[in-house]
C-alpha cells in the first residue's frame, strides 16, 4: 500500500489554481473568471467570506510581486517576510506562490507591458513601388510612387491598416525625418 500524500500537496493544487485564475482575470483579460467560479471549482467547502479573504490576500500578493517584477531572489525575500508577518502566509503557500511566479512571470510581465501601452504599435509594414498609369495631370503619368501599408494595433486586438502613397519627394522627406529620429535615438542611447 502506498503512503498517503502529504497535506501540502493536497493544498497546493487549489492554491495554484486560484493564483492562475487571479492572473487570468487580472492580467490576461478573462472576465469570465469570477470569484464564484473560483470558489466553486477550487474551494467549494470554504465559506464565501473565508474564500473572499483568501482571494484578496493572494491577489494583493500577486499584484505586489507583479508590479515590482520580482526576480527569484527578491521573491524569496518578499515571501519569507510574508511568512513571518502576523496574518501572513504559510511556508507551503509561499512555496506554491514561488513556483507559480517562476512559471508565469514572463507572461504576466508581457501582459502588464502591453496593458500599459497607451497607443498602437507598428506590427508590420509592407511596401511596393508602382508607376502611375492615371492622373489628373499628364506630367504625373509613368512617375514612380511608393505604396506603403502599415499594420497598427495592440497585441491581442484586431489590427488597423493604414495605406499611404508617396511620390519621390515625399519618400525623401520621410527618409530625412526617419534619419533625424534615428540620430536622436542614437544620441540618447550613447549618453545613458
* Portion in helices: 55-70%
Tell me, briefly, the overall form: elongated
Alpha-carbon Rg, integer = 27 Å
Output mean pLDDT. Answer: 86
- Largest beta sheet: what is the strand line-up? 1-2-3
Low-confidence stretches: 1-9
The share of residues in extended strands comes to: 5-15%
The end-to-end distance, rounded to whole angstroms, is 65 Å
What's the total helix number?
Answer: 6
Q: How is the biggest beta sheet arranged?
A: 3 strands, antiparallel
Q: How many extended strands?
A: 3
Order of helices and strands: HHHHHEEEH
Kindly name the structural category: alpha+beta
Question: Please, could you describe this protein's structure?
Answer:
The protein is elongated. It has helices at residues 7-27, 35-42, 48-68, 72-84, 91-116, 168-191, and strands spanning 121-131, 144-153, 160-166. Strand 2 (144-153) and strand 3 (160-166) form a beta hairpin. Strands 1-2-3 form a three-stranded antiparallel beta sheet. The chain has 192 residues and is an alpha+beta fold. It has six helices and three strands.
Which helices and strands appear, and what pairs or packs with what?
Layout (H helix, E strand, L loop, with lengths): L6 H21 L7 H8 L5 H21 L3 H13 L6 H26 L4 E11 L12 E10 L6 E7 L1 H24 L1
Antiparallel strand pairs: 1-2, 2-3
Helix pairs in contact: 1-3, 1-5, 3-5, 4-5
Which terms would index this structure?
elongated, 6 helices, alpha+beta, single chain, 192 residues, 3-stranded antiparallel beta sheet, 3 strands
Task: Give me a quick take on this structure.
The protein is α+β, with helices and mostly antiparallel strands.
Amino acid at each position: 500500500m502506498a503512503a498517503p500524500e502529504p497535506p501540502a500537496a493536497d493544498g497546493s493544487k487549489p492554491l495554484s489554481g486560484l493564483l492562475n485564475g487571479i492572473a487570468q482575470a487580472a492580467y490576461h483579460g478573462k472576465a469570465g473568471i469570477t470569484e464564484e467560479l473560483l470558489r466553486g471549482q477550487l474551494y467549494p467547502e470554504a465559506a464565501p467570506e473565508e474564500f473572499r479573504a483568501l482571494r484578496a490576500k493572494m491577489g494583493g500578493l500577486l499584484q505586489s510581486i507583479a508590479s515590482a517584477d520580482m526576480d527569484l531572489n527578491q521573491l524569496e525575500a518578499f515571501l519569507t517576510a510574508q511568512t513571518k508577518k502576523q496574518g501572513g502566509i504559510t511556508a507551503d503557500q509561499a512555496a506554491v506562490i514561488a513556483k507559480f511566479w517562476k512559471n508565469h512571470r514572463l507572461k504576466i510581465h508581457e501582459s502588464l507591458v502591453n496593458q500599459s501601452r497607451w497607443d498602437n504599435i507598428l506590427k508590420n509594414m509592407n511596401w511596393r513601388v508602382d508607376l502611375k498609369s492615371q492622373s489628373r495631370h499628364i506630367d504625373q503619368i509613368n512617375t514612380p510612387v511608393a505604396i506603403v501599408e502599415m499594420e497598427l494595433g495592440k497585441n491581442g486586438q484586431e489590427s488597423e491598416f493604414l495605406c499611404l502613397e508617396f511620390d519621390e519627394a515625399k519618400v525623401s522627406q520621410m527618409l530625412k525625418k526617419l534619419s533625424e529620429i534615428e540620430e536622436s535615438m542614437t544620441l540618447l542611447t550613447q549618453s545613458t
